[in-house]
Amino acid sequence: MSTKAFYKHDEIGPNKPGFAKTRSIIEAAFYGNNVVKVNTLREAYELAKNSPGTVVTDMPVYHGEEFGLEKDAKVLLFNDGSVTGRCAAARRIAGEPGVDCNDLDKKVMDAVYDTRWGVMYHAEVFIGLDPEFMVKAHLLIPEGEENILYSWMLNFQYMSDQYVKMYKESKPYTNEPDIYIFSSPQWSHPEHPLGLTYFNTATNCAALLGMRYFGEHKKGTLTIAWAIANRNGYASCHGGQKEYSLSDGNKFVASVFGLSGSGKSTITHAKHGGKYGVTVLHDDAFVINTETCSSVALEPTYFDKTADYPIGCPDNKYLLTAQNCSATLDEDGKVVLVTEDIRNGNGRAIKSKLWSPNRVDKIESPVNAIFWIMKDPTIPPVVKLKGASLAAVMGATLATKRSSAERLAPGVDPNALVVEPYANPFRTYPLANDYEKFKKLVADKNVDCYIINTGDFMGKKVEPKDTLGVIEAIVEGKAEFHKWGPFSDIEIFDWEGFVPDLNDPEYIASLKARMNDRLEFVKSREEFKDGYDKLPADALEAIQKVVDELK
Predict the structure, then answer these.
(1) Domain ranges of the chain
(2) Helix (H) or strand (E) holding 355
């Protein structure tokens, strides 16, 4: 699919698709006489390399010429001051209860006006890497923010000849205009001390104000792309997907859903000792066609934490840019990155697509299994969910620990377990939309659904080898699930060292409390945001049944 880039005269005007107040404020700024178009990655690289404060390391970009850079391009480092993570508290979404669009629109008007005094850069990318799902996005950002611009063009698909041709041949969606994002990272306002990320996803636009962290630009762009996918028959996925090729010739497609730090990238990129052929779609952003169950990746590269990749790690040769890391001189006098989190938490880097040699942009085979990754100390390493409503509502009540990628408002406990529906804090449409799509995959498309715990189970750490062992047993058809205690719709695969003691009253009390937390979360959606995220009755019934069976 391709989005709409221009309009005939009779398509322009009030109440026409694509013409609403917020979008009109944002899009007009792109045509100002202070705007400079950045057409290629080489241009963006030169701008970022020469931007004040950039650290040009002596680390070469591996095979940079394969994706539009000069052969001698180097890894660039830029640090954002004390801001090193996303800020959910700054998000405002048009259409949600309590969001004053009139007030926010005026603030965006003033923000746009204030940028008239300097040069603005305009870049374009594609989101989605297959003709089935490709949308075009535009970013407008001030001079001085060239590193964000460059990383944005690297993170998504720059306009190579191959992808421009592919986009032209994709199916046009005349009801979906191009994405327009206006960014002013140095903006400040007393009413928004943490900044403002204002989304009008109905008309595919956003304003990112006071946001220096690149992750806000990456996820802000994906937020709109996922909203487009949701409107057009896709399940929007913040997770990873891979396809296993088994020795008997069969395929097994697994989708894993979890927040940053949950282990989704580890699971997605695991090679399993060469036991199978493995192809990877992506470890962060993709969409599933709810009719065909095929899947499309949204990004070519990876925006990963650097803490696990110390200097000398072979994976570092695939780095393209780095954010919020340090640098030092090595024994040869070369400037190299200090990739472990010494300067701050959540050091980040964009890694090349070449890091995963088994990458594909689309998996045609239908999804076989969904894994909700939870860090819930009452859940064993794996359980299987029977029934589409229970499978979907467990995704809607996905429980985990907060990530260091988050910038929290004052007073928020960073250690508290939280519920993040479908591990996607970037949803801008009613929660019931995701619920119905995942329910359809299980009910109508025979997709199996599991919960895997990658945290602690009653004080004992679930190691990566445990998680991967469980998944391998499922993929190979060797996992023997049986009824779990009193539950009629949950089955368990006993994993050595992690078998729950259902005769332990303390464990039963803890398990019941956590299941009741999920029940209360579903109930709370009836009042939260005036019922904007209310789930269907069968969702409440499914989780209520689980709680009742623990009595």
Answers:
(1) 2-53+88-232, 235-300+360-501
(2) none
Spatial distance between the Cα atoms of 474 and 454, rounded to a whole number of angstroms: 16
Which of 250, 241, 244 has the alpha carbon at shortest distance from 276?
244
* Mean pLDDT, range 318-325, rounded to an integer: 97
Structure token digits, residue 13: 């005007």
Complete DSSP assignment for 423-474: G-TT--S-HHHHHHHHHHHHHHH--EEEEEE-SEETTEE--HHHHHHHHHHH
The pTM for the full model equals 0.94
What is the distance between the alpha carbons of residues 268 and 271, in angstroms, rounded to a whole number?
Answer: 9
* Cα gap 382→490, rounded to integer Å: 10
Identify which has the larger pLDDT, 44 or 406: 44
Residues 476-524: pLDDT tens digits? 999 999 999 999 999 999 999 999 999 999 999 999 999 999 999 999 9
Give the tokens for residue 90: 């700054």
Q: Taking the C-alpha atoms of 86, 88, 94 and 98 in order, what is their torsion angle to the nearest 10 degrees? A: -160
Residue 248 to residues 278, 302, 366, 470, 502, Cα–Cα distance (Å): 14, 32, 18, 20, 38
Amino acid at site 10 = D
The residues facing 312 across adjacent strands are: none
Among 522, 514, 469, 513, residue whose Cα is nearest residue 493: 469
Tell me the fold of 2-53+88-232: Phosphoenolpyruvate Carboxykinase; domain 1 (3.40.449)
**CB burial of residue 476 (10 Å; 0-12, 13-18, 19+):** middle
Q: Which CATH architecture has domain 235-300+360-501?
A: Alpha-Beta Complex (3.90)
> Counting beta carbons within 10 angstroms of the beta carbon of residue 194, is it exposed (0 to 12), middle (13 to 18) or buried (19 or more)?
middle
CA distance 177 to 385: 39
Helix or strand or coil: residue 228?
A: helix
Report CA 510 to chain centroid distance, whole Å. Answer: 31
Give the closest residue to 307 by CA, choosing from 342, 276, 273: 342
Give the pLDDT confidence score for residue 404 in this predicted structure.
60
Q: Report the DSSP pairing between strands 348-351 and 133-142.
A: unpaired
Please provide residue 427's backbone torsions phi and psi, each rounded to the nearest 5 degrees.
-75, 135
Q: How far apart are the first and last CA of the chain?
A: 50
Round to whole Å and give the CA distance between 184 and 140.
8
pLDDT at 394: 97
Fold match between domain 2-53+88-232 and domain 235-300+360-501: no
Residue 424 contacts by C-beta under 8 Å, 6 or more apart in sequence? 226, 236, 237, 238, 257, 434
Q: What is the pLDDT of residue 400?
A: 76
CA 529-420-198 angle, 5° bins = 55
Q: Looking at residue 86, what DSSP letter applies?
A: B
287: confidence class by pLDDT, cuts 50, 70, 90: very high
Distance CA 254, CA 240 (A): 8
Question: How do 196-200 and 205-209 pair as beta strands?
Answer: antiparallel
Contact present, 480 and 491 (Cβ < 8 Å): no
